[in-house]
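Quick one, tokens below:
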């Protein structure tokens, strides 16, 4: 199995609290992006102590209450399934804070981390404030919810976005990369993908590869898998009959999403 592909760990932390995924600098080849998925039964709580990291808590499914010890955001979350295809609520918390997430209903929560030494206000990012985009044409169409885009100054280095790709379409396509700290031409952003499929027995293909092919991994990605993108192009193809969801976390030295399309495939964008 590719070293970039993570299957659910489903590590039971306490009654009603399961750590589905944990991606850190210690257990991955990522140095900027950190990521966790936590399942909570009703009335169960999960605590996280932030030191030099900022965090975006995304209510993937179900309803949760999030507090940073000073502010509390109650009963947030908008959907029972990500495939309701509507934005959800999130909470941004900057470094040096302890956060507690309590489930009001059965919930799956994504914790998106990036480095920060900047004190910034804790903030509810309401579903209604997500920028929704419909990108692409032909079989390259996808729906994008911008949760923490680089146009939103709320965070220090974190970018969070979720993407819906319908049956037999491609996304993160034409292949693009952002692995060079070379602004204004390209930014360096590591990236993680948390994938879900509908129906859940489905899979997608994702390839992660560099210009020189020194890295070239093609994966069959299944429901609730995580793919790590330390560098390189990273397109996703969705088989006929299935719909794809993924949540992206990006972070790097500059909080700017400036990607470079692979020249061989850039014509895809120029079709009439
Ligand atoms: O770099 C960002 C990720 O590849 C996705 O968020 C991608 O941009 C989604 C898309 O437009 O297909």
């Amino acid at each position: 199995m590719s070293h970039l592909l993570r299957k659910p760990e489903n590590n039971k932390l306490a009654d009603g609290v399961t750590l589905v995924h944990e991606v850190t600098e210690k257990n991955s080849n990522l140095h900027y992006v950190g990521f966790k998925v936590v399942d909570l039964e009703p009335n169960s709580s999960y605590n996280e102590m932030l030191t030099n990291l900022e965090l975006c808590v995304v209510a993937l499914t179900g309803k949760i209450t999030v507090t940073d010890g000073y502010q509390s955001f109650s009963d947030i979350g908008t959907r029972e399934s990500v495939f309701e295809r509507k934005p959800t609520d999130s909470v941004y918390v900057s470094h040096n804070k302890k956060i507690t997430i309590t489930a009001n209903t059965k919930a799956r929560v994504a914790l998106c981390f990036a480095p920060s030494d900047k004190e910034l206000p804790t903030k509810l990012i309401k579903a209604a404030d997500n920028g929704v985009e419909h990108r692409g044409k032909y079989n390259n169409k996808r729906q994008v919810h911008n949760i923490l885009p680089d146009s939103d100054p709320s965070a220090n280095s974190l970018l969070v976005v979720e993407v819906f790709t319908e049956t037999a379409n491609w996304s993160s396509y034409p292949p693009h990369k952002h692995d060079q700290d070379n602004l204004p031409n390209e930014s360096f952003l590591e990236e993680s993908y948390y994938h879900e499929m509908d129906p859940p027995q489905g899979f997608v293909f994702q390839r992660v590869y560099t210009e020189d092919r020194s890295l070239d991994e093609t994966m069959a990605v299944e429901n609730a898998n995580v793919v790590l993108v330390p560098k390189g192009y990273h397109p996703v193809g969705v088989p006929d009959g299935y719909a794809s969801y993924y949540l992206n976390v990006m972070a790097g030295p500059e909080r700017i999403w400036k990607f470079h399309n692979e020249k061989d495939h850039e014509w895809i964008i120029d079709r009439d």
